[in-house]
Amino acid sequence: MAVKYRDYYEILGIKRGASQDEVQRAYRKLARKFHPDVNKASDAEDKFKEINEAYEVLKDPEKRKLYDQLGPEWRSGQDFRPPPGWNVHTDFGQGGAHGDFQWGGAGGGFSDFFESIFGAAGFRQAQGGPGGYGRGTVWRQAGADQETTIRISLDEAFRGGSKPIVLQSQVVTPNGQVEVQERRYDVKIPPGILPGQKIRLSGQGGEGTGGGPRGDLYLKVEIDQHPVFTLKGRDLYMEVPVTPWEAVLGAEVETTTPSGNVSLKIPAGTQTGRKLRLRAKGMPNPKGSAGDLYAIVSVKIPSQPTPRERELFEELKKESGFNPRQ
Description:
Layout: E1 3-4, H1 8-12, H2 20-34, H3 44-58, H4 61-68, E2 79-80, E3 101-102, H5 112-118, E4 140-141, E5 146-152, H6 154-159, E6 161-172, E7 178-189, E8 198-201, E9 217-223, E10 230-232, E11 235-242, H7 244-249, E12 251-257, E13 260-266, E14 275-278, E15 293-299, H8 307-319
């Protein structure tokens, strides 16, 4: 028996080459719009059912690959028959690893088109009350994951620790109103965290519906600029000013690092711009070796020399045959 072909890409409003992130974003936007708890339109439930069916297929790489084998030449509403030899008994398990919904009701939740491709094992059906879809149906939706930015200092990133933060978010109530909520967290900063990495707060994302679990909250780390140190990967860079005689004769100078003061050896004849490496004095690495700290030497001269200093420099000028331009 022929069934009507369903273009799942068209239902979600995305292109066939859309990434998994694009699939998920499109689904979340439409699911919020047509959820029966929020949208009271007469066709909202049917639209929501259609959106979930499309997402059930396109979120799962195996289901999506199988669906894409049908080819792009089909149009929504056309009569469709599975190609000869089509395997309708493919078992994808209990809804895949990313199932967000459970439906109840003896009538099932997906269309004949879906079942003609994937068979009865292609979806999850939770036991529920009598009747078809929409009667005795149990809507159970996991909350959406959320992401925001957390700014920390370089010292906090280096040492780790706890950081109290306050976040404001907009939520949609069951009656469709938008409210602002304020949430406070004591965030654990792992030592050595880098810009762009994320801290996961489990169960602190969007609220689920129908008893579904909350999503997760991800805090994307940004590190404020430091007055002394520059971060590149796990390596740190800093400028170390030295006097002309320290650069010429060599010296040991005390310098500050994020882990404490150290004695830095300046080799004789050091030029401005020379990099001196302090091994493993950079950012910690919980999974391996720490970064290095590079001290960039900068030779400084007195901008207002005393009369005696000027006299000594005049004497050096007479005695030295050094010419940096030769």
